[in-house]
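User: Could you walk me through two proteins back to back? I'd like the raw sequence and the structure tokens for each, with a short line separating them so I can tell where one ends and the next begins.

Assistant: Of course. Protein one, sequence then structure:
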Amino acid sequence: MGFLLGYGFGSIPFGLLLAKAGGMGDIRTIGSGNIGATNVLRTGSKKLAAATLLLDLAKGLVPVLLAKAMFDQSDAMPQAAYGPVPLAALGAVLGHCFPIWLGFKGGKGVATNLGVSFGLAWPIGAAYAVTWLLVAAIFRISSLAGMAAVCAAAAAAAVLAMESYVPALVAIAVLIIWLHRANLGRLAHGEEPKIGQGK
């Protein structure tokens, strides 16, 4: 149930819907072809990109919080790694990355996993956000910041002894890094665009 809740929210393609509503057409035909905020920004609309970022974050945050409320699981309660809250977290990211409505071709999950991280526990979300901001400020590369942040979230859960969240966050980190494999190739060759540049 938790997984389906997360997947349902995560699979809403806000970037695609907002871009079309804003007259920008199908964002899958530009830039990286993804439906996330970074690609929406390539349309030239900072407002649409910001809205996409917030909504993609929300679709990770909301199902995790709902799962906690529905299944009466607070941060103070021990939870199984296969329980509804971690599964809602995993489902939300998988829904964003592989939405059934778009032929399982979605975004890369970075913003959605930020919402998931805050939903699981605010210190995990804080570790995610701070890592993203620091890496982005230093290197000015969004993909690198995103990959570092997802690893930081999993590490934070382990350090904070929130063991039930670690497997889901590790699985999410592996997935997001795999989805960034083309970015890794460009990083290795010094060809990855910096924040504000085109693809």
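----
Protein two, same layout:
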Amino acid sequence: MRIARIAHPEGVAFVTVEGAEGDEVAAEVAEHPFGTPTFTGRKWPLADTRLLAPILPSKVVCVGKNYADHAREMGGQAPANPVIFLKPSTSVIGPGAAIRLPADSSRVDFEGELAVVIGTPCRDVPAARAKDVVLGYTVANDVTARDQQQADGQWTRAKGHDTFCPLGPWITTGVDPADLALRTSVDGVLKQDSKTSLLLHDVPTLVEWVSRIMTLLPGDVILTGTPAGVGPITPGQQVSVTIDGLGTLTNPVAAR
């Protein structure tokens, strides 16, 4: 099932996306998509709507240096345990919305990632039971002001700017995240090409690690880390992150 959030002629709604590419239909979900969704009966051609961020999380928990090749390109070794940080909910945007570069940063980078969407309140979840608390998966771009990250020594400012967490195009349920191809391109030029099988700490491990620290709520998002190939973006460019089975998340880049 593909769960999206759309703007339609009468407002905003959660929907499921049905049909083949180019001929998709959005079927409205009553209230919210958690648990077993019920439907209102209203439908729209997806092309007549606008895709929004598929979820508005209370928090976005991110994992740093979770691919060995990215840890090396950042000039260090991968940590033995997951290193986590937070992005504010105000950093979240949807497909097609502009990543806006702050004037006080001289370098902003893209970071294509697999995102895990939590489906039920949970705490202290063992890895073996992680799939029971996951609603599904979506595509993310962990946009980073690299110069601010290096200057501050901690990552809140660099990762937390408005528009620095594109998510979408939808949440896909029933997917095995163990070995999905991930590719990022800028203006059609391939920059990242990897697989989630290369994650140092896999999805079940991350759910266990994070939920041991904090309660996760329905709609919360875990970003699993980015592979090597990160690089700068500038106004006028377009960034696309594709994960097989999940779709493509595309965002233009503009000055703030």
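The chain has a mean pLDDT of 96.

Let me know if you want the two compared in more detail.
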